[in-house]
Amino acid sequence: MADPKCVIVRDPANGREAELPVREGTLGPAVIEVRDLPSRLGYFTYDPGFVSTASCRSAITYIDGDEGVLLYRGYPIEQLAEHSSFLETAYLLIHGELPRPAELTRFTEDIRRESLIHETLRKFFEGFHHDAHPMAMMVGVVGSLSAFYHGELDIDDPAQRYISAVRLLAKMPTIAAACYRHSVGLPFVYPRADLDYSENFLNMMFSVPSLQYGEDAQWYLDPVATRTLDLLFLLHADHEQNASTSTVRLASSTGANPYACIAAGIAALWGPAHGGANEAVLEMLQEIGRPERIPRFIARAKDRNDPFRLMGFGHRVYKNYDPRAQIIRKACHAVLERFSPADPLFELAMRLEEIALNDAYFIERRLYPNVDFYSGIIYRALNIPVNMFTVMFAIARTAGWVAHWLELKADPGQRIGRPRQLYVGAPRRDYLPPAAR
Ligand code: SDX
Fold it and tell me: From the CA of 314, how far away is ligand 1's center (Å)?
């Protein structure tokens, strides 16, 4: 049997060598296992931002950034977008296989049964001022779910891990809609048994008691709205070891309560370089305002001395078009035609994309629109406030976060995550009394 593939690292300073094993995956680059490097050669590896570092083995999602490929458990995102639903895709991410009809029915019932939140939890919202950012409320309220389920959770029991995953997936839309209702001073709306996942979310967001406001037109249950939202949830469900998923994995590796781990993921997602970009794209488009102002923003994006970045453009992995952005761009047309014909921001976004994609700066750096570039256009057409855009992302990404949590907890080889560093601080020195400083 051929020796497993290795690479030899040689230190020219002393001639010492380390034979490091190479591990092959199903798809994508192989990896060099460096865990023995410190003991063999006395070095750590150094990779700020983990640009070239594989943090784990995973079978959930595969991305080919050069080819613009995204697979959920081997299925191309384009096929799932066309044929699947968010809940069916969430089942796929969690279990690894597409559900048979009876399995999907059971999973959907499990989610429905857990979609209510404890009445006491509703009181948490009263602690937030009405203009609190919904992501601040999400981090706090989702983290507080730990208090409701901490005692009964045996993380080593797969059945209880599954219940926690279902609870989180089920309660996110209810909590998210409650954040919005609190911010606009409307009473909370409960999930209904006769509505599906995306229908329920939009109903909890926008349904108003008819006696107060007259018959509401229930526009939010229009199939164009509910199916497009379901598609957006599906497209945002998972994305390999992105910053927020890596945060969930690191928190999970300590054995922390899953509700606390997902709250950590929500916090990481909030940043404008990550999930907060969809909110930042809308604000950027509103600031640009008119096509004739695009060149000055493109110039700012190219100016090293200007911190301004073209929000919704560029990606750590995709050096080609983000396949999700292409699907969302197409979905924009149906929603805008139905709810917001000739939305000037959509025209502006397409013009901005056209100009950027023909500019040498963006071409040389392989900067393309990412998932966040068009999603906000759809959310806006669905009357979702801009400060709720990242909350939408968090609802969807909970499917991926819980799938990675379950995968990590089921891995017998998983250990607490604990990176090292290149220390550049002061050398050892002795304490000086104040008079001697
Ligand atoms: C998401 O990881 C994931 O999978 C994330 C995500 C998911 O589903 O989980 O896909 C979701 O977070 C999408 C990304 C959303 N963020 C944005 O749209 C914010 C704008 N984009 C940039 O901040 C940036 O592109 C990042 C953060 C997305 C990627 O940053 P990197 O990999 O650190 O890129 P980089 O800084 O190494 O950029 C390389 C060059 C630099 O120029 P030079 O130093 O070579 O001259 O490209 C430039 C950057 O200045 N550049 C940009 C730019 N993005 C990169 N210049 C202008 N505008 C931009 N948007």
Answer: 4
